[in-house]
Amino acid sequence: MVAEVEQFRSEFRAKGIGRRYSGWAHFSFTSLVSLATVLFAATQVSRPRAWEWALLPVFFLVANLAEYFGHKGPMHHRRRGLALVFERHTRQHHYFFTHEAMSYESSRDFKMVLFPPIMIVFFLGGIATPIAIALFLLVSRNAGWLFVAVGVGYFLLYEWLHFAYHLDERSWLARRRLVALLRRHHAAHHDKTLMTRFNFNITFPIGDWLFGTIHRSR
């Protein structure tokens, strides 16, 4: 491991990860709350019409572009009111993990992979709920619930895939073809010379493809 990364990790673990922190509890909380929300939203959908089902890929694309612009914007460029997002992502995550040191070493390092639990509250209350309410009022009740299901499901997909990219590359999951391909896409983004210009999608590089920000290495 690069000496600079090793030193940063050691210092961050000592100062930024509390003794009571449990990586697996963090992972479980994110997964269970998200899955419960998706399941609840899905059960509220009643007799959806064909045009309402057709909204699913639209909602998926909206989520993908939100991921893209959120990552390209405040996560890599300091914005008023969102300095904490920039600090955690650019100044911490990208120093804890680089393209030469992508894997975590223990479950305590999950804190630098997963979003803080409060982000679920922020995502549900600050983003998904207002959009869902607008869809309830302007489109249909089913459209609102389908958006919640897709939006929260996408958030969980983001967390699970990002988690997979930072596994030991020799692990069974990391060696699966799709995960390995997406991991390489994400690893290029962790090169500090590329991180503000390329590979902003964490899940599927749809936004990167649309806006020409895929880094094509030799």
Identify the notable features of this structure and list them briefly.
0% strand, 218 residues, 9 helices, mainly alpha
Task: Furnish the topology, listing elements before pairings.
Layout: H1 3-16, H2 23-44, H3 50-53, H4 55-72, H5 83-96, H6 118-138, H7 141-165, H8 177-189, H9 206-210
Give an overview in words.
The longest helix is centred in the last third of the chain and has 25 residues, at 141-165. The protein has one domain. The chain has helices at 3-16, 23-44, 50-53, 55-72, 83-96, 118-138, 141-165, 177-189, 206-210. The mean pLDDT is 93. Helix 2 (23-44) runs antiparallel to helix 7 (141-165), helix 4 (55-72) crosses helix 7 (141-165) and helix 7 crosses helix 8 (177-189). With 218 residues, the protein is mainly α. The protein contains nine helices and no strands.
- Runs in which pLDDT lies below 50 for 5 or more consecutive residues are none
Structural class designation: mainly alpha
Range of helix content = 55-70%
The fraction of residues in strands falls at under 5%
Number of helices, where a helix is a run of at least 4 consecutive DSSP H or I residues: 9
Radius of gyration: 18 Å
* Shape category: globular
Question: How many strands?
Answer: 0
Overall mean pLDDT score?
93
What is the domain total for the residues?
1
Q: What does the largest sheet look like?
A: none
Terminal CA distance: 23 Å
| Helix-strand string | HHHHHHHHH
